[in-house]
Amino acid sequence: MVHGVDAVxxxxxxxxxxxxxxTPRLLGLVDACVREAYHRVLQAFFALDLPPPRGVTxxxxxxxxxKKQGSGFDLPLALALAGAAGLYPPERAExxxxxxxxxxRGQVLPARGAVSVAIAAQQHDATAMLCSPAxxxxxxxxDGLALFGSPTLADAIYWLAGRxxxxxxxxxxxxxxxxxxxxxxxxxxxxxxxxxxxxxxGGHNLLFSGPPGTGKSAMLRRLPGILxxxxxxxxxxxLQVHAAAxxxxxxxxxxxxxxTAAGAIGSERPLRAPHHTSSAASLLGGGPDVRPGEVxxxxxxxxxxxxxxEFRRDVLEALRQPLEDGTVTVGRAQRTVxxxxxxxxxxxxxxxxCGYRGHRLRPCICTPGxxxxxxxxxxxxxxxxxxxxxxxxxxxxSELRGPEEPAGSSSALRxxxxxxxxxxxxxxxxxxxxxANGRLEDRQLLRACAAKAPALNxxxxxxxxxxxxxxxxxxxxxxxxxxxxxxxxxxxAEVDIWQAAALRxxxxxx
Length: 510
Description:
- About 35% of the residues lie in helices and about 15% in strands.
- With about 500 residues, it is an alpha/beta fold.
- Strand 1 (about 1-5) and strand 2 (about 5) form a beta hairpin.
- Helix 1 (about 30-45) packs across helix 2 (about 75-85) and helix 17 runs parallel beside helix 19.
- The longest helix has 18 residues, at about 410-425.
């Protein structure tokens, strides 16, 4: 059973008695969906001309103390009933994991969370996993697990009886490259594009501020195009998250596209852009069965919050824990679920309610009090967790007519990002897990920076002038480390410190 993005094994067993009132019993704290599964499965037995179990049926779902819910229990319930009816030897089901929904015609359909179940099966040394063909194709990212996709319930039962062979899972279809807009389409904005490159290279959270129509959202939506591609473990993790959220399950009836899933996620990192009316539960995850929210769906990708001050204050404050820990914890009365949430936060906002404060041509009509209230929607602790705070000014007509810059294309910037990423990998060969510059802890950061006296003196000067906190000092060093990596330098220089300060919105005036 899937909780959040992880699966917990549930043992399903069935017995039949010839005496009693004839009412089937489903034990083990099952919900209405699992109770309905009993009748779906019986109808599938009749549709496939399979002999149903006779007498009074009792089905137990263990452990009994955990609530069972979801359509994935249809297939194990059907196999347990088939075993009770003597349709296959019971020892053939030892160590077997089964997962899938059953239609009234007896087809095995995809169900939410198949990748999580496959990972749990691998961890518990399962002999095999039986599911729908579409889910078997998706779960093939899990190595070392024998996967079998059964089109119908009859195929699954006859396979357990040794009377039929199931073909191996179909290969995952190749992922067609998505058409991603290029940064070269946007003229000018050298500093914001540098900030995008730094964010992509070091995993730094980024906020763009500027008048409407200056290209803030357009640039931030192009950020995934310059990020390093997903590695194989990262892709498996992203598939697990999206499968647990039900985003890889489509279609439910014959003649429609069932599943499909396997190739839906390629090497590009996910981009999630929730609307500013989103609730805290939709961002963090929740619901009766605790499904992943936007922060988890953005795992190993980008979470883009447009019109940042328009989000509710409690929603924004709830982001502080996943930004620091890389996980989100959702508590319920019976169970606490922790889900992964390592994402790159990007956001855009106007400088004031009317949007034209500081504009070259259009005057701002906001009162000082309105501006103060607008900016106070973003708390200091939240802003302190953003490494890059960059203003995006309005461009002049001549700047908009400027020539296309080959060095500013997404492909060129991605090459710089990949080189900086490789430098970080080379420094961390002794570590078990890669940590981007934007998440380096104090001791790791000091080893990685190797800053000389001039750079440290410049850092002290900036801290004194702008009254930066210790966290601000760490973030300045992280950004400076990434700037040095982009220039293919081992030591952090003084110029990196000053440039990092500028990208954090710190001027050099007293």
